[in-house]
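quick one
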Amino acid sequence: MLRVCIYCGSHKPEALEECGKCARVPRSHPDVIHSIILSHSEDEPYLNFIGLDEIEGFRESILSGSPLNIDPRIFKEAEEAYSAVGTMGSPQALQYFSRISHPVMVVTLFVFIIFVLMGA
Ligand SMILES: [Zn+2]
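structure w/ zinc ion:
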């Protein structure tokens, strides 16, 4: 697993969270996409766009102060994959919904039954 801060080149624990070194958070759309491109994870292979050596190469250019020069094709690919993941929802969000949807269904059904009994 490798995640590089796009502002200072430090390694960080999560691609889209605050950097422990420079305290900057990727917020703008291009910064978010760049952060995703500069991370590599075995758990999320669909979000790996470049190799580990290429990430190291970009890290070196960030450290030396040169601007990030990411292939527009890779940027586009990352952008599409990221929006697809966003539409599907993260696994945590899905878990959250499966936890709450059940009691909500039960309450809805209960209200429906009462309604039917009252009407009858
Ligand atoms: Zn940083």
